[in-house]
Amino acid sequence: xxxxxxxxxxxxxxxxxxxxxxxxxxxxxxxxxxxxxxxxxxxxxxxxxxxxxxxxxxxxxxxxxxxxxxxxxxxxxxxxxxxxxxxxxxxxxxxxxxxxxxxxxxxxxxxxxxxxxxxxxxxxxxxxxxxxxxxxxxxxxxxxxxxxxxxxxxxxxxxxxxxxxxx
Length: 167
What we know:
By secondary structure, the protein is an alpha/beta fold. The relative contact order is 0.17. It starts with a strand and ends with a helix. The protein has helices at 16-19, 30-34, 69-76, 89-98, 143-150, 154-166; strands at 3-9, 54-57, 81-84, 101-104, 117-121, 126-129, 134-137.
């Protein structure tokens, strides 16, 4: 599966409280969390986002609390993919478990501008910056992790595995 959308950039060391502040953690509903995505970074940030946009971040994205609400909020905001220089390990694990596609691209993140039109192919490990007519190679998402994403996250993946085992 590939994704196409506009780049929405955030800075470095963005922690989970900036992604979704604790005062909004009264629900796990993706749409409700998505309405407040990045309120801890900039009130109203979500008003600049359209469904299908691609989040682009600097180093250490998702540091801080291990709350799974952060990737859920990003998905609820309509952004299915995050490209970052690097991810905090717990966020990386939570992201895939919640069904959010994550790709580390190192310093290449600096060459992407706000609003650039991007096409992301996690299977091939290729990001095409359609605005700048530039390809950015990255490590492909391994097949078993793509299968987790295809099931909407780890819960869906396990349910399917159990259903197949039951015959």
